[in-house]
Structures are given as C-alpha cells and as structure tokens.
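tool_call predict_complex ligand=aspartic acid
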Amino acid sequence: MKPSLIVHGGAWDIPDDAVAACNEGCHNALAAGWRILASGGSAIDAVEAAVVVLEDDPVFDAGYGSHLNADGQVECDAIVMDGTTLRAGAAAGLQRLKNPIRLARKILEACPHMMLIGTGAERFARDSGLALCEPQELVSKAEWEAYGRCSQDEHAAIHHRGHEQGTVGAVALDRHGRLFAATSTGGTCCKLPGRVGDSPLIGCGCYADSQAGGVSCTGYGEAIMKIVMAKSAVDFLRRESLNGEHPAGDTVLGAERAAQDAVRLLALRGQATGGLILVDRFGTPAFAFNTPRMAYGYVGPDGLFITSV
Ligand code: ASP
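tool_result ok
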C-alpha cells in the first residue's frame, strides 16, 4: 500500500503576514511525518510526529501558543483515532502538557477509557511517564498581548488581528493499511474556562474508519459538534465508495466531493465556517473549507510536499 499524509493548521481568516509561517509550519509537520511513513513506519507514529511539530509552533493554536481563555490561561484538547479498531484516545482541559497529542496516544494505547479531562488526565499523563510543565510555559507573547487587548475591552476579533491561525491535525495511512487521524487545539480565544469544543470529541473534530477514511476538522467548534462533522465526512466517503464510481486508483473526485459535502453541511445546518482534511481508504488526500483561508499540506503522488494557506 502507498503511504499518505495530510496536515492542517486551522481554517480561519489567517492574515497575510502569517501565511509564510503557516506554510513553513505545515511543511515541517509533513517532513516529520513523512520521514516515518517513507521508511515503512506506522501511521500512528506519523500523525503524532506531525502534530507535535504543529503543537510546538506558536503560529498555530495548539500546545505552546494556544489561545488563552477568559482567565488568561491555556486549556488544550487533543484526540487520536485508530481506523482499524475504531478506538480513540482523547483528553480535554489540559493545562500542563506541552504536547497534548502524546497524552491522547497514551490514552488510546494504555487506558481502559477513551477520554480523560483536566487534573485526572494530567495525573494519567504523569503516571504514564509524560512530563508535566508549568501552565505559564504554554503561553506565548503574542497570545498574552492579545488577551491583554481583550481584557481592556470586550472580546472582539479586532483584538486578535494577527493570530487567527487555528487548531492543528493530521491524517495518515501507512504501507500496512493502518489509518490514523489526530486533532489538537487550544480552543477558541477568550472561551469560558472549562469550555470544550469539537476537537477532542470522537466524530466531531476527528474520526477514522479504515473501511472509509480518516478526517480532522477545524473551525467553529459549537457548529461542528451540531453536525458531527468528521463522522459525516467519513459517511460521505463511504457513500462514494458504495456508489462504485471511483474505483481504487481514481478516487480523487470521490474524496474531494466528500470533503466539500461535509463543509456544505456545516454551512447549511451549522450556519458556520470551518474546514477539514481527509485521507480515504485508498490513501487519497483531500480538503475543503469555507473560511477565507485554511493552512494545510499533503504529500503529492510524486512524493513532493504541497502546502498552501
Ligand atoms: N474547532 C476548534 C474549537 O472550536 C477551533 C479551531 O478549529 O481553530 O475548539
């Protein structure tokens, strides 16, 4: 099986002066994940490596540089899902994990439950050998300044100019046909403490089923939850392969149509904007968004990295 990898760094009104950094971040994430897949490694290692790079990059809203909540604190959420077993590992409300995706993987692989939150999740992380950090270590200068502007006035998009970049995600298929999807986020700016969006919820911000495909979403979480967007996109992929119009080797149209239909559903029934990336069961990458911009990147059929914002 030919491996496949796609990543995203959020779908919002990304300003011109952040475009280069978003492209570079997506390129670096592809490089980290593709190194693993190209040498025969597993899809879970690839999505974890790609998402760690995106979490560490303050231009994106995940890990270090996450948006701050109304109390000026970072609260992160993350999920990884295995398309073979349909098992997920998810965590929400994290304040002491530099790389929330690493905890999501530990939960997937070593926890009897599929989702942990807050201090319980952090205790599980520590017991699993992951290092905890101080909450302030996740706060970037740009986010602290944006929070300062909001605190002096009402929360308004204008105060956040320059940091509309969003949630991150990755979907990978490896040579052995294993399919994994992952999503990691700091959530929305100035959210109420304790707010959890779509990102760590199975079927909403992330879904993977080896019989159809894997998906990672971004955008307005409260609307993405309404339409269970990642699972909807996987159902659209299943419809495409049931239709049989696009046999293996000619799956591009089907994958693109599934991605676009999910975003259309978000617009029509969720009345909102966002985007998604996916890899279908044949390894075809696709994406769609209805925001002014989305940061994304994938590995083309010739092995070249394609990134765009
Ligand atoms: N979907 C995320 C959330 O609502 C935000 C984003 O995608 O940037 O938490």
